[in-house]
Amino acid sequence: MKNENIKSKIRVVVAMSGGVDSSVAAYLLKKQGYDVIGIFLKLWTPPDYKDCCNIVGEALCGLPNSGDHAGSPLRTHKQNLCCDDKAMAVARQIADKLKIPFYVLKVDKLFKEEIVDNFISEYEQGRTPNPCVRCNKYIKFGYLWEKAKELGADYLSTGHYVSAKKVKDIRYSILDIKNQKAKNIQYPLSNISICRSKDTIKDQTYFLSSIDPKIIPHLLFPLGNMTKKEVRSIAKKAKITVYNKKDSMGVCFIPDGDMDAFLKHFSKSGEPGSPRQRRGDIVDKQGNVLGAHKGLLGYTVGQKIGDDQVAAKYHKFPNYPECNPNIPNGKSQTFRKEFGILGNDLGQLGKKNFDIPRLYVLAIDHKRNRLVVGENEDCFSKEMIVENLNVVNGRFWEMVKKKKIFYAQIRGGHRAEKCHVTNYPECYPNNPNNKLQTLRKEFGTLGINSGQLGIEFLKPVRAITPGQTVALYDKKILIGGGVIKK
């Protein structure tokens, strides 16, 4: 009883989305005696959603309050998957059931600026961004934490499948890369480490690799030691109506899932005649032209290319009709329709529906408007450069010093692979090595956007994709992350 009285004085803001995970998180914290407040974030919705102006009497999209914006060619007919009206109503209903205060915060402008605009810009530059990682950094664990403090909250909680464990206290300083100066400002590092959850399939530590390390002492993750099945079971017993609700998938602000249409509509590079939408060459690694693309916008490294003509030319199939200029078009059409083509070295016709080995995107040459393709085995590599390094655990520096093995996860749902961190101080040519060595040895260094590093995997990994987030681990402990540069 005494413990409950203490907790009742500890205020926790829970990010509630109307889904089963955040609902159970709020339920468990309330049950444990915390003073819980639920907050629902109203994010940006594509402005062509027909009802985007009817939520609070003004255009959430930032456009004039004009109904369904009928003049636009893109009509999604859906709101943001994370925060539609139905989800907001459900979240409010659950908060009422738990007898906790509930607020809705409109954060569409910040979300558009920091998440959506960045998403579009990255694709325009031939990179593949991860908007969920960026949303956690700027919105859920940035903006929301600031609002939570305004409400007098001691902690922020979410329904992420993340575990938090106590570790030895460490002190660190911040290295100011922008001004090329070492700030001698010390902060007590939290004795909490972010660790992988019990449910290894649902684990979401990867998506927290970019958050500000100073917020970690103020985070609670009630679901970290549970499986999804256990969470649903708790929700069912507690009569939480969304206990069997399906998990949301895809990019939340592209509700219909048509990313190509979204990019072409909202990107300046999607306009007809723009550099990113002009036709260009599809080439192999040696630069040999295999065919043409209709615009680079939307391609990503590792993506399968379904063009038979390009694949046939790459594999040098002489009798594939389009690869043999000496065969009249009429005949090639007849051959293709009646037999299908097996383009072996003997120039023979094959049986119908013969499968030509597929090609994959190896690189997006933005400057020369070229798509570089190759075979699946060409998608594997061992090295990469990571920028915008964000260290969330001080043991990072100890591991670099002792040349220990890291585990790097290069995309959500991907298995973390063993690797070594290479050339770390060499990435700071303008900083005296002695300053770096002193900072590393005495304090360790944490901070957002603190530079670049090289990573070398012990064995080749597939589709290292510029723009994607990489999360770094000491086995199951998250120690940092960054963005893949090349």
SSE map:
Elements: H1 2-8, E1 11-15, H2 20-31, E2 35-42, H3 85-98, E3 102-106, H4 108-124, H5 131-150, E4 155-157, E5 162-166, E6 170-176, E7 181-189, E8 192-196, E9 219-220, H6 228-237, H7 259-266, E10 280-283, E11 289-293, E12 304-305, H8 308-314, H9 329-338, E13 359-365, E14 370-374, E15 380-391, H10 395-401, E16 406-409, E17 417-422, H11 433-442, E18 453-462, E19 469-474, E20 477-484
Parallel strand pairs: 1-2, 1-4, 2-3, 4-9, 10-14
Antiparallel strand pairs: 5-8, 6-7, 10-11, 12-13, 13-14, 15-18, 15-20, 16-17, 16-19, 17-18, 19-20
Characterization of the model:
The structure is a single chain. It is globular and about 70 Å long. The N and C termini lie far apart (56 Å). The chain contains 11 helices and 20 strands. A hairpin with a 2-residue loop joins strand 19 (469-474) and strand 20 (477-484). Helix 2 (20-31) packs parallel to helix 3, helix 2 crosses helix 6 (228-237) and helix 4 (108-124) runs antiparallel to helix 5 (131-150). The strands form 5 sheets. A 6-stranded antiparallel barrel has the order 15-18-17-16-19-20. A 5-stranded parallel beta sheet has the order 3-2-1-4-9, sandwiched between helices. A 5-stranded mixed beta sheet has the order 11-10-14-13-12. The chain has 3 domains: 2-44 and 80-161 and 197-259, Rossmann fold (3-Layer(aba) Sandwich), CATH 3.40.50; 279-376, no CATH class; 379-484, Translation factors (Elongation Factor Tu (Ef-tu), domain 3, Beta Barrel). It is of the alpha+beta class. Mean pLDDT is 77; it is low at 49-73, 169-188, 321-353 and 425-450.
